[in-house]
Amino acid sequence: MTFCAIDFGTSNSAIAIPASDAKGMRLVPLEADHLTMPTAVFYATDRHDLPQGAVPGPTADDALPRCHGRAAIQAYIEGYEGRLMRSMKSVLGTALADQTTEVGQGHGVKYLDIISAYLRHLRLKAEQAGGQPLTRVVMGRPVFFVDDDPARDAAAQASLEAAARSVGFDEVAFQFEPIAAAFDHEQHITQEQTVLVADIGGGTSDFSVVRVGPARAARLERRDDILANHGVHVAGTDFDRHLSLHSIMPTLGLGAFGPSIGGQPPRPVPSRVYFDLATWHLINTVYQPARVAELRGMGDFYGDPRHHARLMKVIKDRLGHALVGLAEAAKIETAEGQDTVLNLALIEAGLQAALGGAEAEGALDSDLQRIVACAHETVRLAGLQDTQIDALYFTGGSTGLRALTQRLQAAFPHAAAVRGDRLASVATGLGLHAARRFA
Question: Which one of 103, 188, 267, 283 has the minimum C-beta count within 10 Å?
Answer without folding.
Answer: 188
